[in-house]
Amino acid sequence: MQFIQNILSANQILTASLLSWFIAQVLKIPTYLLVEKELNWRRFFGSGGMPSSHTSFVVALTLMTGFDAGFQSVAFAIAFTLAAIVMYDAMGVRRETGTQAQVINAILRNVFVNGKPISDDDLKELIGHTPLEVLGGVIIGIATTAGFLIW
Fold first, then answer.
1. Could you say which of 32, 47, 53, 107 has the lowest number of CB atoms within 10 Å?
2. Neighbours of 80 (CB within 10 A)
3. Can you give the pLDDT of all 151 residues of the chain as single tens digits?
4. Residue 12 in contact with residue 148, Cβ under 8 Å?
């Protein structure tokens, strides 16, 4: 435990990024409750949904790197490129996978073989993010970084 405390106290960039991820994961619970009218504590551990914790993590990482090493530094360029790839992937491939899971789950619910369902196990549908969910992650990443730098 002391090892982790040493790393986090010495590395503000990592600490701010992890804090941003944590805040986004916590916010998934009340957002899910507002939309689905169901309290689901497991949303804290799941991917997908509002806001994107992947996005908030890489945005905080990118901004903290820029403020620490400079926005013209190679480190910032690498962090920015990583953030762009993560956000693009969240809205692209991962979102399509979730859409396909929804269709397959609908088929499995509606198709029967010899009076029995083919499967009663749903595939995971909350995998990727909508652009709005990614924007939510961007906002949390920016707010966490601003709060971290001010504090």
1. 107
2. 18
3. 777 777 777 799 999 999 999 999 999 998 888 888 888 788 888 777 788 888 999 999 999 999 999 999 999 999 999 999 998 888 777 667 777 877 777 777 777 545 555 655 665 666 667 888 888 888 988 998 899 888 8
4. yes
